Amino acid sequence: MTADHMESAICKAHVGTGDKRGACGTGRVAGNVAGSAAENEGNAGRRHAHGADKRSADRGSVASADPAACEEFFDSLEPVCGHVADDLRERLHRERLRNGPGRADGDWMEKPLHVWLDRLDRGMIDLDGAMLPLAVGINEVLSMRDALILSVVGDATMRDPRMLMDIVRTPHDRRVAAAVHKALSAEFDDRDGPDRARCRTAVLMLAAMAKVMPERMKVQPLAIISYILWWIGDGRAETYALSCLSIDEECSLAAIVLKSVRNGLYPACCDG
User: Fold this and answer.
1) Cβ distance 257 to 237 under 8 Å?
2) How high is the pLDDT of residue 7?
3) CA pair distance 244, 188, nearest whole angstrom
4) Is the pLDDT of residue 62 over 60?
5) From its phi and psi, is residue 72 left (phi > 0), alpha (psi between -120 and 50) or beta?
6) Of 26, 59, 190, 230, which one's alpha carbon is 20 to 30 angstroms from that of 238?
7) Which residue ranges does the record annotate as region Disordered (predicted)?
8) 118 Cβ neighbours under 8 A, 6+ residues apart
9) Averaged pLDDT, 47-71
10) Which residues contact 192 (CB under 8 A, 6 or more apart)?
11) pLDDT band of 35, cuts 50, 70, 90
């Protein structure tokens, strides 16, 4: 399943054919918008060191339902050095050239995905050392981004680590693409919708990534946030989509969210 498959599935299931490109949005700084998640959602965590994943790994995780700790967590976040992010990006590219995309992408995501799923399952957030490679990966390889989306809004089948790794490793596989399209369509029509606590945890983890990463690497975290918020009918979906598009006006996922919001198109769980 390529990013085009994911976005095609979203379009077909929720939006119609439509124009998948959007105009550049608001001038609000993406980092400020990401930081507002702490005020509006309430989560927790501890100080994230300046790109030092070894030190951050033992800082601990905190419940995403704790508003006061959430505010403290976001206030304490510091930017990741640009060269640290760039070094990781270059390493991923080298590994993809050396081992091929499927193997390299799977190796890159193996630990971060399991850490991510653990945090979602337990309703905890942090910026564990595995989260920095994840933040880089979702901006470089969109099948990694798609796996994160499905881990939040997908059904139990889509949340299975093996299925998610299939999405990462074999994005062109027709079986995988068909399963994703079917799952998204079914979830779109489900009046219960995704687990709100799971969505909150994911949004806060992604907002933390967006706050600390260099601007060019805020794009996909912000796009995923906008999509998750749109899925549960949260009015901030448009703001996040616009913030994403203000950095990269060609981010098609954010453009899809923006068009959906402005056309009043939402999943069934948002009705009434």
Assistant:
1) yes
2) 54
3) 23
4) yes
5) alpha
6) 190
7) 36-60
8) 124
9) 60
10) 269
11) very low
Structure tokens at 147: 């796996």
How many Å apart are CA 46 and CA 78, to the nearest integer?
11
Contact 80, 131 (CB under 8 A): no
Beta carbons of 56 and 208 less than 8 angstroms apart:
no
In a 13 Å sphere around the CA of 81, the CA atoms on its Cβ side amount to 9
pLDDT score at 151: 96
The most distant pair of C-alpha atoms in the chain lies apart, rounded to whole Å, by 52
Encoded tokens for 96: 């993809």
Strand partners, 62: 125
Mean pLDDT computed over every residue of the chain: 81
Cβ–Cβ under 8 Å, residues 224 and 149: yes
Query: Which of 38, 142, 135 has the alpha carbon at shortest distance from 80?
Result: 135
State residue 60's pLDDT score: 58
Q: What is the radius of gyration, based on Cα positions, of the chain? A: 17
| Single-letter code of the amino acid located at 119 | R
In the chain, where does DSSP find H-type helix? 3-10, 30-41, 53-56, 67-76, 82-99, 101-122, 131-140, 142-153, 156-159, 161-169, 174-188, 196-212, 219-231, 237-247, 252-262
Q: What is the pLDDT of residues 111-164, one digit of tens each?
A: 999 999 999 999 999 888 889 999 999 999 999 999 999 999 998 888 999 999
Residue type for position 90:
E
What the block records as the tokens of 208 is 């933390």
- Tell me what the mean pLDDT of segment 252-264 comes to: 96
